[in-house]
Specification:
The complex is a heterodimer of chains A (145) and B (406).
Chain A: H1 5-17, H2 22-35, E1 49-50, E2 57-64, E3 67-74, H3 77-90, H4 95-100, H5 105-108, H6 112-115, H7 123-144
Antiparallel strand pairs in A: 1-2, 2-3
Chain B: H1 4-7, E1 17-18, E2 21-22, E3 24-25, H2 36-48, H3 59-79, E4 87-90, H4 93-108, E5 114-118, H5 127-136, E6 139-143, H6 153-159, E7 164-170, H7 182-190, E8 196-199, H8 211-214, E9 218-222, E10 233-237, H9 239-244, E11 255-258, E12 263-265, H10 279-295, H11 297-316, E13 321-324, E14 333-338, H12 343-352, E15 355-356, E16 358-360, H13 365-371, E17 376-380, H14 387-405
Helix pairs in contact in B: 2-10, 3-10, 4-5, 11-14, 12-14
The chains are: A alpha+beta (145), B alpha/beta (406).
């Protein structure tokens, strides 16, 4: 039995709540960013890139055994850390669960400011894109039945 | 002499704490903060004078119109223009440049003509010309700068031909802080009767500008970058050009008479001010000019140059820090990167320390392309900044490096 999206979110919130100040929180994100596997150059294409004014963000997805695998990257480390968090939650979930997910961990962690469209870091677009991939594959599943 | 600690009290926002830290506002090239005198003027205007300008016979309308026209006179004095009607109020520098591109462009630019800009322009002094060139089949030519950010004057000279109809050039680069030798450029252009437009958005708040002495044909700037409200800008244009140029917008307030057979236009500058202008912001601009004049523009220049020199030395001393545009004449701002760290990451960490800087391309992507980079960190100064604040920026840079390069 795989962990549900909400199980993972709750776990992350708990981990993050143990960090006292912003320095620890940013260092946590920076560390996550550093550990996220870089995207292969062949996938850093215009097609996979998100519109963000400042940091560049790329994302790609494929369906494996009914679950979505995401590959994403950014040229800014903190943005990359935020992407790593998103992927922890949404990687290897079913398209249907991704479409229906409520990503409350972002607000609970106090990270919602990074996801507002005005932050111009492309993260808002990446959440939309992940949901779009979910919707695309979920629609295919429905059509197959 | 600038008494920075005293005058900081004039700016209420500078008292603010960001994430629990005192605000260090170093994003003045994007917009400056407003002195209480300007803020009070806005409230006072709405509280006691507000009425539409040039429309009514009633008392308030007359008072509002007088205030608006007095603001124009103040701007005229500020730029040392020959007359008030050479001062057109716009919403900002961008609109002022678009006005010239559309109006001057429709009258004077034809297929095969050439317009020259520089490689260090803000997008708002590139795109309007690109659109004009596309529409008229004219050609946009670009004068390059060298790796110090210095405009290559010989190259610029080489671009001028008998087809050149306009040179549009920035006074102070918003991405590099480099000051261009615009007087020399204007003299050079005028030997061949080519008019010159100056984008002065990063100039007027830092040093005295005299449009008659420069002899420029057009000069554009924004109010909000020089301590006034947003939504007001100025296009100075020589009367001989403005008279000849058709209106770019149409509507109320810009006409002499309207019948369905023929409409004749109002005199300068009203023919370029269709609709209700932002008259309150215009009044706030006059107040900001008054504030600056009281401090003395010369004193401001001396103080800010000292700040920039200090910031340059301190930043330059940081190992692995790269400053872009070290041309000898610079003002107001400094653009840099630290190692291979993404400016966005640095900006996020500085923000948590209460330090507001700008990161990104600064709407000058060709400048980024010149240096082969995606973005820079830009610290930009005003006369209310202090050396202590620059020290905080330096500490912040060290902290960012420790956090990001661990």
């Amino acid at each position: 039995m795989k962990n549900t999206i909400n199980d993972i979110q709750d776990k992350i919130i708990e981990e993050f709540s143990g960090l006292d100040d912003w320095i620890d929180k940013y260092e946590y994100l920076i560390d996550l960013g550093k550990r996220l596997n870089p995207l292969a150059l062949t996938l850093k294409t215009e097609k996979n890139s998100m519109k963000g004014c400042q940091s560049k963000v790329w994302i790609n997805a494929e369906l494996k055994d009914g679950r979505l695998c995401f590959f994403a990257d950014s040229d800014a480390l903190i943005t990359k850390g935020l992407i790593a968090l998103l992927l922890q939650v949404l990687n290897n979930q079913t398209p249907k669960d991704i479409v229906n997910s409520d990503l409350y961990f972002i607000e609970k962690m106090g990270l919602n400011v990074h996801l507002s469209p005005s932050r111009a870091n492309g993260l808002m677009s990446i959440v939309k894109q992940i949901k779009w991939y979910g919707l695309k594959y979920h629609t295919r599943e429905i059509q197959q039945y | 002499m600038i008494d920075v600690h005293k005058l900081r009290k004039d700016f209420p926002i500078l008292e603010k704490k960001i994430h629990g830290k005192p605000l260090v506002y170093l994003d003045n090239a994007a917009t400056t903060q407003k002195p209480k005198m300007v803020l009070d003027e806005i409230i006072e205007f709405y509280s006691s004078i507000n009425s539409n300008i040039h429309r009514g016979v009633h008392y308030l309308s007359e008072q509002a119109s007088i205030a608006y026209e007095n603001a124009r006179k103040t701007v005229k004095g500020f730029l040392n223009a020959k007359s008030d009607y050479e001062i057109v109020f716009t919403s900002g520098t961008t609109q002022a440049i678009n006005l010239v591109a559309n109006s001057f462009g429709s009258k004077f630019i034809e297929e095969g003509d050439e317009i020259i800009v520089s490689e260090m322009e803000h997008h708002s002094n590139i795109v309007p010309w690109q659109i004009l060139c596309e529409r008229t089949q004219a050609e946009l030519k670009v004068a390059p700068f060298d790796d110090d950010g210095k405009l290559m004057m010989d190259e610029l000279k080489g671009l001028i031909t008998e087809k050149t109809k306009l040179i549009a050039i920035v006074y102070v680069s918003n991405a590099l802080g480099v000051v261009n030798p615009i007087k020399e450029i204007i003299e050079m252009a005028h030997t061949q009767d080519i008019p010159v437009l100056i984008d002065g958005a990063q100039a007027v708040q830092h040093f005295p500008v005299d449009v008659q002495e420069l002899d420029c044909d057009f000069f554009a700037f924004s109010g909000h970058k020089m301590y006034a409200e947003t939504g007001i800008g100025v296009l100075y244009g020589k009367e001989k050009w403005l008279e000849d140029m058709p209106p770019h917008h149409s509507g109320g307030g810009m006409v002499d008479s309207v019948t369905f057979e023929k409409t004749t236009y109002a005199d300068l500058p009203f023919k370029f001010e269709a609709g209700t202008g932002n008259y309150v912001a215009a009044v706030s601009l006059a107040k900001a000019i008054e504030y600056i004049s009281k401090l003395s523009m010369m004193e401001i220049t001396i103080y800010e140059n000292d700040l920039l020199k200090y910031a340059t030395e301190k930043l330059d001393a940081i190992d692995g820090l790269m400053i872009y545009g070290l041309a000898p004449k610079r003002c107001g701002l400094i653009s840099f990167n630290l190692d291979n760290i993404h400016p966005y990451d640095v900006g996020m960490i500085l923000d948590k320390l209460g330090i507001a800087i700008r990161t990104g391309t600064h709407c000058a992507e060709p400048v980024m392309e010149h240096f082969g980079i995606n973005a820079t960190i830009r610290a930009s100064f005003a006369f209310y900044n202090t050396k202590e604040e620059i020290d905080k920026l330096i500490d912040g840079m060290h902290k960012a490096r420790v956090m990001l390069c661990k």
